[in-house]
Design a protein that fits this description.
The protein is an alpha/beta fold. The protein is built from 5 helices and 9 strands; from the N terminus they run βαββαβαβαβαβββ. Strands 1, 2, 3, 4, 5, 6, 7, 8 and 9 form a 9-stranded mixed beta sheet that branches. Helix 1 links the parallel strand 1 and strand 2. Helix 3 runs parallel beside helix 4. The longest helix has 19 residues. The radius of gyration is 16 Å and the shape is globular. The two termini are about 15 Å apart.
Length: about 200
C-alpha cells in the first residue's frame, strides 16, 4: 500500500459538544487537537469528554490554547492552560501542546503589540510550556498573521513545530511561503470540526 503524503485529523472546541469519534476513525482520521482554554478565563466545557473520547478511539491527540496576548502575560496563560487540560506525555499517543495565534476577534489584529513585543510574548509562552511539559509547543498561525504581527520572525523555528493555518481546499502551498524548518501545512477551519490534512 502506498503511503499517504499526509495524515488527517480534526480540531474541536466546545462548539462541537459531544463528538462521534468512532465515525471519525472510520473515515480515516489519525489525530485530534482539542481546545482546552482561551486567555485566562475561558475553558472548553466539553474538554474532558472530547479529549478522553479521542483517546478511547485510539486517535493520537493533544490539547491547545487560544492565545489572547492583550489580556495577560504569557506565563499566566500557560498556567491557566496547564491547570485546565494542557499537558504532554511521552506515551506515544499525546501530541505536543499547541498554541493558536491568529487575528484578534475583538480589536487590532496584533492585539496592540509591535512585532518585537509579540515575538517576546510568544517566546515567553513557549519557554513557559517547555518548563512545564519538558518540550516546546506547536505554534499554529496563519502565514499572513505571522508576517503582519511578528515580521516573519524566525525566532521560534528551531524549537517550535509550526502549523500554518490555511483556509483552502487542499493542504500545501502555504508551507513553501514560510522560511522555517518543521513546517506543517494544514488545511483547517478552526472551531468548525473540519478535517485537517497535514503534509508529512
Amino acid at each position: 500500500m502506498q503511503a499517504r503524503p499526509y495524515v488527517s485529523g480534526v480540531d474541536v472546541s466546545g462548539a462541537q459538544g459531544s463528538v462521534d469519534w468512532a465515525a471519525l476513525v472510520r473515515r480515516g482520521d489519525d489525530f485530534a487537537y482539542v481546545e482546552a482554554t482561551q486567555g485566562t478565563t475561558q475553558q472548553n466545557p466539553h474538554f474532558r469528554q472530547q479529549y478522553n473520547g479521542a483517546s478511547d478511539a485510539r486517535l493520537i491527540r493533544g490539547s491547545y490554547h487560544v492565545a489572547l496576548p492583550d489580556t495577560s502575560t504569557a506565563a499566566a496563560q500557560v498556567r491557566f492552560f496547564f491547570n485546565h487540560g494542557g499537558h504532554w506525555s511521552g506515551d506515544g499517543q499525546t501530541l505536543p501542546p499547541m498554541v493558536r495565534l491568529t487575528r484578534n476577534p475583538d480589536g487590532p489584529n496584533c492585539y496592540g503589540r509591535s512585532n518585537s513585543a509579540m515575538v517576546q510574548w510568544i517566546s515567553n509562552f513557549s519557554d513557559s510550556v517547555r518548563q512545564k511539559a519538558g518540550r516546546y509547543p506547536v505554534i499554529a498561525t496563519a502565514a499572513q498573521w505571522r508576517k503582519e504581527c511578528t515580521g516573519n520572525s524566525t525566532g521560534f523555528t528551531e524549537k517550535n513545530p509550526l502549523f500554518i493555518i490555511r483556509h483552502n481546499t487542499t493542504p500545501g502551498g502555504a508551507a513553501g511561503r514560510v522560511a522555517a524548518p518543521h513546517v506543517l501545512a494544514v488545511q483547517r477551519q478552526w472551531h468548525a470540526g473540519q478535517r485537517q490534512q497535514v503534509q508529512r
